[in-house]
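hey so u asked for the seq, here:
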Amino acid sequence: MAHTTPPSPTPGKKVMLFYPPGPLYQRGEDRSQGNVTDSTATAMRAANDLAYASAALKAKGFDVYCRDFQTEGVDWATLLHSYRGYKPDVLFISITNATIFADLQTVKKLKEADPRPVVILKGALFFDPPAEMLAQLDLTDVAYLIGGEADFVVGELVDAHFTAPERIPRLRGILYRQDGQWQRGDFSSWEADLDQWPFPDRTVLNNSLYVRPDTGEPQATIATSRGCPAACIYCLTPTISGTTVRYRSPANILEELRLCYHDHGIRNFFFKSDTFTINRGWVAGICDAIDQSELAGNIEWVANSRVRPLAGETLQRMRRSGCWLIAFGFESGSEETLQKIHKGASVAENLAAARLARQAGLKLYGFYLIGLPWEDHTHLEETRKHIFAIDADFIEVHIAVPYHGTALYEMAKAEGLLDETILGKDYFNAPTIGSRHLSNREIQAFRRRLLRAYHLRPAYIARKLAEVFKKPRIMKNYLRFGSRLLLRTLP
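ran it, structure tokens below
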């Protein structure tokens, strides 16, 4: 396990970590910040950013109150009651691009109830942000912004705030106020040794809130690596986590899996990594570690992967070690689009990756992206055909979001495709006015028609029913997601 630091000389200081009430968003997923409420088949992932922050703060001797009000489905009154009862000295709130305005309103209301706490906002939105973007936000009540990897800095930041403010300018990935102006810390480097950091503090999470979509069993998120060498124009990962992949060792990952399994009764896992299969030797090491432990045959897991590089042998090895599903960002059926987004893969390679996954006995989750600046009806039709050709078990179709800090943002801005601001938007809710050739309404209508047509095919429905025959719990969850799909895709 990772080393710990000496306790803080500020005993009794209280830090409240939370997701505010409201629609479900993947607040811990700084790359995508997914809208779970409006998705077709996405389940809420564990609040690891809060749990990592809790571990770091407890190591410094702080008292921690942590709660995911969002996923609990509670209201504002419950948050206010908890706030008044706990009387925190510090608030740490995980935000997203889509929820930022609502999150700032939450901060304002809490500070009106009790103005004492120091407020820290964490989210990819604040990774070395442009001044013109910050000017769109009322940050009057906020003391610090964390845009980098918060788990590596939040403990040091809170400790420095109370004991040694002169250390704050040297911290990575933060903005802090000085003489009424926002000042920037170091946004050019990242923590290299991931094994030395504490595991997420899952004792502060309600782990039953985060479940495997088909079975409804608790599912933990394991951050296995960070960083991505790809140059996809829409993705935040190379910006916020760097272009060098930093790996946790298989032994360190196994230790966290064991802790989840033995201490929390969790046997399902999502291995969080943008590039999970890029290093065949490392993947084999993880699989060997699992297979040579008491977890062999007792856990199941899923992972994201890039289409290339990819080896069938790697997928087969993963399957034997408990992997049951792999997700690919196929993105498009248009060769032009794949080239322009710098995906580093072709339509043929998408099809080959899907074939290798099926040959390995893995279920397939496909992600697709539409509404890019140059796209017209021809591009959308090519993607539609590609989606049916791959015929994944689960799919999601996103509308491209030009996040601040991406090449896509600069392109959309230059072409006049931004609708006033990208803040407050997500990939289901009008992130732009459309493409050069299609209105946002046309793009959204295409998405709804496509999802209905895909999921209402008799062959698809028959396949799903065959999979869950004599499995009432899975049948119930499939029906629940199916109902949500129909509701979200009605004309």
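The chain has three domains: 14-184, 211-440, 456-491. The CA atoms of residues 222 and 271 lie 5 Å apart.
lmk if thats what u needed
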